[in-house]
Amino acid sequence: MTLRALIADDETLARRLLAEYLRPHADIELVAEADNGLDAARAITELGPDLVFLDIQMPRLTGLEVLELTGRRDGVVFTTAYDQHALRAFELHAVDYLLKPFAQERFDAALARARRLQGQPQPGLDRLVAPRPLARVLVPDRDGGSLLVLAVDAIDHIEAQADYVAFHSAGREHLKAQRISELEAQLDPARFVRVHRSFIINLAALQGLERTDSDAYLARMKNGKRIPVSRSGYDRLRAVL
């Protein structure tokens, strides 16, 4: 079976060396290279490679931020020039890494391990990627031909649409295949509140609450939108306001 690989490193020579080390392995197809974290995240999302050779320190997004943004938790081998203190964190979490400079034999050993674990989640990556609130989301552009990084601070509210969520930001809507309950767990609860089973609002975009004739509430947003607020959603709002 052919495995598809992505190399992400901001150094041209490092990418060239990894590609050269892959050459003897006929069952590995190099499908893409990326010289920054944002392009790496896009390639992971669009191409779904089986293996990702990921540098830690890259422009635009770090390797860990790439994993956070894409949710990638398998088939990852880090390439790094980090010091020993940082490497101990990798070893503690059983995450494979290649310490620059490395030889073909060390690369082959990491590749063999990645092959054995191919398709299996690596729990260590979950522990290594700090469980901090989501800061960015990767969403398709309106034309569907590219991906955008959307800062969560720029989101006014989020709406559930079946197995999708719609991010409303600056008058535009961005759809992403994700359940709202999963997204809710990734957001900072002090800044984003689920006010209804189908809606999460950004408190920074909230202007006020309106009581309706039916003894219910609507969240009045600064962009003019009105969002329904359930009883439990109202309680959650009161707890943080």
From TrEMBL:
Residues 4-115 form the Response regulatory domain. Keywords: Phosphoprotein. Residues 142-241 form the HTH LytTR-type domain. SUPFAM superfamilies: CheY-like (SSF52172). SMART domains: LytTR, REC. The modification 4-aspartylphosphate is found at residue 55. It comes from the Bacteria. GO terms for molecular function: DNA binding; phosphorelay response regulator activity. Pfam families: LytTR, Response_reg. This is LytTR family two component transcriptional regulator. It comes from Roseateles saccharophilus.
